[in-house]
Automatic annotation (TrEMBL):
Protein name as annotated: PA0069 family radical SAM protein
NCBIfam families: rSAM_PA0069
Keywords, alphabetical: Iron, Iron-sulfur, Metal-binding
PROSITE patterns per UniProt: RADICAL_SAM
Protein source organism: Pelomonas parva
Residue intervals of the Radical SAM core domain: 79-316
UniProt keyword annotation of Metal-binding present: yes
InterPro entries: Elp3/MiaA/NifB-like_rSAM, MJ0683-like, rSAM, rSAM_sf
Database matches in Pfam families: Radical_SAM (PF04055)
Length: 374
């Protein structure tokens, strides 16, 4: 379990502006589900509500808080997830994807799953050192590992901090297999480490592409790489010999769902060799955040979108049950899966994960903490 950063302050009272905040996915620092007090805005006759809304429109700077994690490798306990271990170098994600299922994790830090999730980023600065200790343990057995499951390991701050780079250096040194799911072209920086590992069958990468429409991408995932840039990253990885796939996730009915086949075609043309897709999930605070986003950006179809989501989630806004949470259920979910299978077959893509190569793993060399006496 990671240690809670000592520099994190309590969440601020929620403000609900009328308009979106440029460059951010959500327009509200909504309270989280563990807050002891609930607050609501009140018009005192002095124009304070208008003033609060205007203040909220001021660009919100990203704050980075350092954490010295007690552990960095998390074991998977979910029966419907295909990997055994995960590593998240950061908590929160500046890319600001409105649909991100990981937003509620900021609640455990007493922070808002809304603006705080994308503006108050926790950086696990000792991640590489903790990983080395874990891999060196006599009890550790290598298994499938994914880098960046509840955050994007290549979000903008990675360019400065390089935590993901140092993690991959340890994985490279030990020949430990791993996969990455990202929306960032920043992964190209680490091709000097990733390509040689890919040649040994140790690496696979998935680029998440939810839309080819730049205007939609700007409001759906405002600080992620542009769709065309992600396609160029697929091409760069493929040309370097790295197995690369595309994740058309999440699929949002009537928003990006009509683009499913076109995204798959574009990714295949760029060099992707595999693909998968997951319907949108709305756990905990993601649900009100997402619905607020829908009504601000797509008021003409918001109710229709939610009705279709409920059709695929047993009449509820969200279904967290193992076995259906990643696929949905009912006729519309089945139709989406049929469209995916048909497109994958037509394009010659794979829709299953590559086998994990474990035989070449070697324990890391122990680093001495005591200097030489001579």
């Amino acid at each position: 379990m990671s240690q809670t950063p000592t520099r994190i302050a309590a969440a601020q009272p929620a403000l609900v502006p009328v308009e979106s905040i440029k460059g951010r996915g959500t327009a509200t620092a909504m309270p989280h589900r563990f807050e002891a007090q609930q607050r609501e805005q009140y018009d005192d006759g002095w124009g304070s509500l208008d003033q609060n809304a205007a203040e909220e429109q001021v660009p919100v700077a990203t704050q980075i808080m350092e954490e010295h994690a007690r552990a960095i490798v998390t074991s998977n306990q979910s029966p419907d997830i295909s990997f055994d271990y995960s590593i998240n170098p950061y908590r929160g994600c500046e890319q600001g994807c409105i649909y991100c299922f990981a937003r509620p994790t900021h609640s455990y830090l007493n922070l808002s799953p809304g603006l705080d999730f994308e503006t108050r980023i926790v950086a696990k600065v000792n991640a590489a050192e903790r990983l080395r200790e874990t891999l060196a343990s006599p009890r550790y057995e290598p298994r499938s590992l994914v880098l960046g499951t509840a955050t994007d390991a290549y979000q903008p701050i990675e360019r400065k901090l390089g935590i993901t780079r140092r993690i991959i250096e340890v994985l490279h040194e030990t020949s430990h297999p791993f996969s990455v799911v990202t929306k960032s072209s920043g992964i190209e920086r680490d091709l000097d480490l990733i390509a040689p590992m890919a040649a040994q069958g140790l690496v696979s990468v998935y680029l998440s592409i939810t839309t080819l429409d730049n205007d939609l991408a700007r409001i759906l995932e405002p600080r992620a790489a542009a769709p065309a840039r992600r396609l160029r990253t697929i091409q760069a990885l493929a040309e370097a010999g790295v197995p690369v796939g595309v994740s058309v996730s999440p699929i949002i009915p009537f928003i990006n769902e009509p683009e499913l086949e076109r995204i798959l075609e574009a990714a295949a043309a760029a060099g992707a060799s595999s693909a998968f897709s997951i319907p949108v999930r709305l756990p905990w605070e993601v649900n009100p955040l997402f619905q607020d986003w829908l009504h601000r950006h797509f008021p003409d179809r918001a109710e229709r979108v939610m009705a279709r989501i409920r059709d695929m989630r047993g009449g509820k806004d969200n279904d967290a049950r193992f076995g259906t949470r990643f696929t949905g259920e009912g006729i519309w979910a089945e139709l989406l899966q049929a469209r995916l299978r048909r497109a994958v077959m037509k394009l010659g893509l794979r829709n299953e994960r590559r086998p994990v190569q474990l035989a070449v793993f070697r324990k890391p060399q122990k680093t001495s903490t005591q200097g030489s006496l001579f």
